[in-house]
Amino acid sequence: MDKVGVIGAGVMGIGVAQNLAQSGFYVKLVDLNEEILEKAKREIYDHVRFHQFYSQDKESFDPSEVLSRIETDVDLEVVSDCEFIVENATEKWDVKEKIYPRLDNICSESAIFAVNTSCISITKIGALTNRPDRILGIHFMNPVPLKPTVEAIRGVYTSDETIEQAGSILSRMGKKYILVNDMPGFVSNRVLMLTINEAIWLVQDQVAKPEDVDAIFKECFGHASGPLETGDLIGLDTILYSLEVLYESYQDPKFRACPLLRQMVAAGKNGRKSGQGFYTYYSHNS
């Protein structure tokens, strides 16, 4: 399993590809067009350059060497010889459901598919394939190379062997996993999405400014970042899509997305990746 396919070159896909390449894997990174992939390579190069400044162990990597282990392509067929695939496409069912039947036909019967999702059912995705026992969820946290733990999700049919093999990959990436069972949102996002959404309601209702909401969580509760900072980091569009999945899955009004969140996403204010969310960020190109 030295070759790993990574589907999707957004924020999470870039982080997963970087982490894998830094760990000695050969990565095949796939997305829809060359422009996205070229941007991904530039960002990986920049992230690796600055990694040593943020890593607690100060381990440094050569950006050119890391990039030499990442092959990019717009054709999904390129991952046909990979025994482990990490899928990071947009958190929308109508996007993901088109990917897995194709992967199922392209890849060997022994290949494992890891769904990097925050909310979508692993069992439901497994049903799109002829290998539900070889499907698991791996919910990576952002920024991927700096987070030591992931949430792993066992679908109804996920085998012990699949969990064990995925655990070996994660160990090589310098990560441990916490295994949970499959229900939409799992543990982290059934709690986190509600928290972020409620924090947005507080801003909409003019109870407090974003910085004051976050300050209460950091200074009173000792959190490393507040819910609105976290939302900006994850991507407010991803927050919205996740809430929509949770609402559809549970039919519970507590998951109803705040109108302010919908308005910000419609305006393209998606957080760090767009340069503007509840806070303003400088882009890589500025």
Description:
The chain contains eleven helices and eight strands. It folds into two domains: 3-181, NAD(P)-binding Rossmann-like Domain (Rossmann fold); 189-274, N-(1-d-carboxylethyl)-l-norvaline Dehydrogenase, domain 2 (Orthogonal Bundle). Helix 1 (11-22) crosses helix 2 (34-54) and helix 7 (188-204) packs across helix 10. Helix 5 (122-126) links the parallel strand 5 (112-115) and strand 6 (135-139). The mean pLDDT is 94. The protein starts with a strand and ends in a 20-residue tail after the last helix. It is α/β, with parallel strands linked by helices. GO terms for molecular function: NAD+ binding; oxidoreductase activity, acting on the CH-OH group of donors, NAD or NADP as acceptor. This is 3-hydroxybutyryl-CoA dehydrogenase.
Brief sketch in words of this structure:
The chain is an alpha/beta fold and 286 residues long. It has helices at residues 11-22, 34-54, 63-68, 93-106, 122-126, 160-172, 188-204, 210-220, 227-234, 236-250, 259-266; strands at residues 3-7, 26-30, 70-73, 84-87, 112-115, 135-139, 149-154, 176-181.
Which range does the strand content fall in? 5-15%
The CATH topology assignment of the largest domain is Rossmann fold
End-to-end Cα distance? 39 Å
CATH architecture of the largest domain: 3-Layer(aba) Sandwich
What topology, given as strand order, has the largest sheet? 3-2-1-4-5-6-7-8
Please count the beta strands (DSSP E, at least 2 residues each): 8
Please tally the helical runs, counting DSSP H or I stretches of 4 or more residues.
11
Pathway: Lipid metabolism; butanoate metabolism
Domain 3-hydroxyacyl-CoA dehydrogenase NAD binding: 3-182
Protein name: 3-hydroxybutyryl-CoA dehydrogenase
Family: Belongs to the 3-hydroxyacyl-CoA dehydrogenase family.
